[in-house]
Amino acid sequence: MIRRPRRLRTSSSIRKYTQEHTVQAHDLIFPLFVVSGENRKIEISSMPGIHKMSIDNILLEIEECVSLGIEAFILFGTPDTKDALASSAYADGNIIEIASKAIKAKFPEVWLIADICVCSYTDHGHCGVLKNGKIDNDLSLDLLAKMAVSCAKAGIDTVAPSAMMDGQIEALRSALDKENLVETSVMSYSAKYFSSFYGPFREAADSAPQEGDRSTYQMDPANSKEAIVETELDVAQGADFIMVKPAMSYMDIISKLNDAFDIPLVAYNVSGEYSMIKAAAEKGWVDEKKIVSELLLSFKRAGANLIITYFAKDFLNSSKS
Q1: I need a surface site. Which of 84, 130, 183, 318 has the fewest CB within 10 A?
Q2: Catalytic amino acids?
Q3: C-alpha distance across the termini of the chain, in Å
Q4: What 8-state DSSP symbol labels residue 35?
Q5: What is the rounded CA–CA span in Å between residue 106 and residue 217?
Q6: Residue 6 annotated as part of some ligand binding site
Q7: Which domains can be identified in the chain, with CATH numbers?
Q8: Can you give the pLDDT at residue 210?
Q9: What is the Cα gyration radius of the chain?
């Protein structure tokens, strides 16, 4: 007797009912780039459809997202001033503090996540304190902890340290608990690779290093066992979520971490992945709707529970049509 698996694929209805994985609005986290001022909406040339926005426009963006079912957002601040110690990341009245309060006042139920890294706030563009031309890991922890506490006090639900400093999860958890911010969760960028896929983001966040690169603190793309080591450390230090960044070229890492850990796993579908598909779609080389659906499904299939993606709005709008 011939086995006929095709019987489960003979109609669209049967295919829908037998799908092993789906992507829903509540699987998606939408990134937002916040700038100061009013009525500002700045095009990011390398990321079609994505803008840096002042808080009034951020509120309109969130309103549109909520209408689509998106209720989770990760905020990136793009400050007016920078210095060697990233003081605008944690000073009173910083851009994320103001944005968080405004968002929570209008949308109290949304899930607000703040990226905790100082590369956008330092004049040298690195993710921590530079000392004699090198990152000082432990001095950097103090800045990250200050930033996390500032964000949490302003209403951020989850802090997401992305600097890849050793001990950053413990430093943030301790600082938050000391301030009685025990309900603020920590989303660890536990496996963040030294990747070429971040280029468009660095335009968006104005965060490119002025000299050198980040290879001494971000992970080597050649390594997979290291992702287990890094994630084990972060979970032991109190991470509530773990993450793989980028996602598209690291689905083997998503799968490994999904097998090894029983806490929510986030895939970050990064700027370069977004921009490549947008460029190819603009040329007519790919069907954007179909390829994005396939890509997001692949992250879920690999084991991701949640996906940070610039495609969130496009995907849900196209799903309605």
Answers
A1: 183
A2: 192, 245
A3: 41
A4: -
A5: 38
A6: no
A7: 22-210+224-241 (3.20.20.70)
A8: 65
A9: 20
Cα(129)–Cα(121) distance, integer angstroms:
11
How distant is the alpha carbon of residue 90 from its chain centre?
A: 20
Residue labelled with tokens 């007016």: 80
Using one digit for the tens of pLDDT, what is the confidence trace for 111-130? Answer: 999 999 988 888 887 888 88
- Which residues contact residue 20 at a Cβ distance below 8 angstroms, ignoring those fewer than 6 apart? 301
Identity (one letter) of the amino acid at 112?
A: L
Which pTM does this prediction carry? 0.94
pLDDT recorded at residue 102: 97
Residue 245, phi then psi, degrees to nearest 5: -145, 125
Q: Which of 81, 87, 146 is nearest to 116 (CA)?
A: 146
- Extract the tokens encoding 161: 């340290």
Query: How many other C-beta atoms are found inside a 10 Å radius of the C-beta of residue 269?
Result: 27
Residue 271, marked binder? yes
Share of the chain above pLDDT 70, in %: 97
Of 63, 113, 139, 145, nearest to 306 by C-alpha is 113
Q: Is 230 annotated as a binding residue?
A: yes
φ, ψ for residue 75 (rounded to 5)? -100, 135
Averaged pLDDT of the chain: 93
Q: For residues 181 and 114, what is the distance between their CA atoms, to the nearest angstrom?
A: 15
Please name which of 73, 70, 68 lies closest in space to residue 53, comparing C-alpha atoms. Answer: 73
Question: Nearest CA to 206 among 82, 89, 95?
Answer: 82
Which residue numbers in the chain have pLDDT < 70? 205-210, 212, 321
Residue 117, annotated as binding a ligand = yes
Q: Classify strands 28-34 and 306-309 as parallel, antiparallel or unpaired.
A: parallel
Q: Which residues pair with 242 in a beta bridge?
A: 265
Q: Is 185 annotated as a binding residue?
A: no
Find out whether 61 is annotated in a ligand binding site. Answer: no
Separation between Cα atoms, residue 90 and residue 118, nearest integer Å: 10
